[in-house]
Fold this sequence. Notes:
Structural class: alpha/beta
Strand content: 15-25%
CATH topology: Nucleotidyltransferase, domain 5
Helix content: 40-55%
Amino acid sequence: xxxxxxxxxxxxxxxxxxxxxxxxxxxxxxxxxxxxxxxxxxxxxxxxxxxxxxxxxxxxxxxxxxxxxxxxxxxxxxxxxxxxxxxxxxxxxxxxxxxxxxxxxxxxxxxxxxxxxxxxxxxxxxxxxxxxxxxxxxxxxxxxxxxxxxxxxxxxxxxxxxxx
Length: 164
């Protein structure tokens, strides 16, 4: 299964694609969609949507996974993040791709085995699980890959449970 993981952000939206059988994961591609903080929010959302559409066309994922919004002390930041998340959900729906949504706790628990893991621990495990020679440079791309790995793992477990 090819999974596109998305780590939403208004300035930096990370994306990561993996090929996975649920236990073994292979990196297909990863990167960051950057927008200018000087641009108005609607323009930034347009850029993110356009780039995500291109990534979906180029890499042809079979599923999309997005991290759920965590409750933040800064309401304004959480609202902006929700807008980007909405763009990611809409883009997946446009492409008629199945969507998985996971809390940060679920992602960390799935990838690291500990729901309160630090970003550096997530990066280390993403590198290990994908058998990479060096860590993924961007934390945003690494987080997106972690979301994709979480989805691939969960999808396989659910499939096995349905077959049992």
